[in-house]
Amino acid sequence: MGVISSDSIFHFTRSKDTLLAILKNEFQPNFCFERCELGNQVVKGAYPMVCFCDIPLSQVKEHIGKYYGEYGIGMSKSWAEKMGLNPVLYIRKASHLAAHIKSLVEVVRSTEELKTSMQKTLISILRYIKPFEGNHLRGKEMPDKIKFYDEREIRYVPPPEMTNNRHLFLSEEQYKDLKARNRFNSIVKQLKLSFDPDDIKYIIIKDEDEIFSIVQKLPRIKRKYSYETVQKLLTRIITTEQIRKDF
Asked: Considering the entire predicted model, what is its pTM?
C-alpha cells in the first residue's frame, strides 16, 4: 500500500522571492477568502492563515503547477504539532455535520446575547472549515471545480488571544477592498509562525539553474543561517523537475 501522508508538510508558492522571504522572515499569515456551503446557506469570509498540504512528494506532483506554485518549503510534522497546526475539516454541503454547523450559525446570528463570546467561538471553528469540493477561489485562471479534500490541508490560524480577539475575520466587502485587506494583512503578518533551520526538511525550487542563486542568498538572509547551517540546508534542496521525474 502506498504512503498516504509523509513525515513532512509542504507550503508552496509561485515565487522564488516569496520562498526567500519565508526563509528570512518565517511564515507570515495573510487573509484568505473561504466560501463554504452548509445546505442552502453559504458562509463566506476571510481569515488569517498559513496553509500547508500533507501530501507525499510522490503524489504532490499532480498538484504542482496546476494548483500550487513550483517553489516550496517542507517542514517536519513534529514542528507542526509543536506549533499547534491542525488539519482543516472538510464539509459536504448536504451532510449532517453541515446541517449542525448551519444551525449553530443561525443561533449565533439570531441571539443578541450570544454575539460576543459565542460569535468568537464560532468564527474560531469556521476558520478551520473548508468545502469538500468547489471552485478554486485563489486564482482567476482556475475556475474549474476541484476536490479540495485531495489537498489534505493543514492550517495555521493565529489564536484569538494573540490579537486580543480582534482581526479574526474580514467580510467579503472588506476583503475585496484592497486597501482594507492590505491594512489588516500588515497587522496579522506580525503574528509569525516561527521555525528553526532544523525544522526544514525540504527547500523546493523550480530547477537546478536556480540552486546557485539560492546558495548565494542563504548566508545573507539571517544570522541564524551560519555556514554549517547553510551546508546542511543545501542537502535539502530539491527541484520540482526532480519531483516530477523521480517520485
From this structure: 0.86
